[in-house]
Predict the 3D structure of the following.
Amino acid sequence: MTDWCDVRRRLGIAMHRVSDEQHAAIDHVTTEARIAAIVGRAGAGKTTTMKAARDVWETAGYRVVGAALAGKAAVGLEAEAGIRSGTLAAWELRWTKRRDLLDTKTVFVLDEAAILQWHAMIASAGGYLRSLTRKAEEGGFSLGPMLMALIGSRKHEKARA
């Protein structure tokens, strides 16, 4: 079992680069929890937070990889947070070929996970943005639908093929 407090303490100098709110988010995701989420508006510092969290995970001996629905977001996660990333579709292909499987020493970062609950349901960009804005205003982003979309994403891809 990893002593996350000790790991964060050893990285104390690097942790000074983040705000108190980001530090709390890092504490939240670098625990023994199997699933953790960080939700924030654009520009809130989520990527900076993930970069610091990656330092904590790697110092504790974990492999950190990431994914996003869009290739541009995956490239950004890798370039800005230093987390080796690809599209969710690319990860699914690897897994079907039994490559890059996740294990108990791997942290899988899913960037822009809120988008997953909408990608197969809304055809137009305008409709997507209106729905996304409404959900944000209502505080309606939840982890449940995002995870269900992740689980069902392969089924949706097969249906479109």
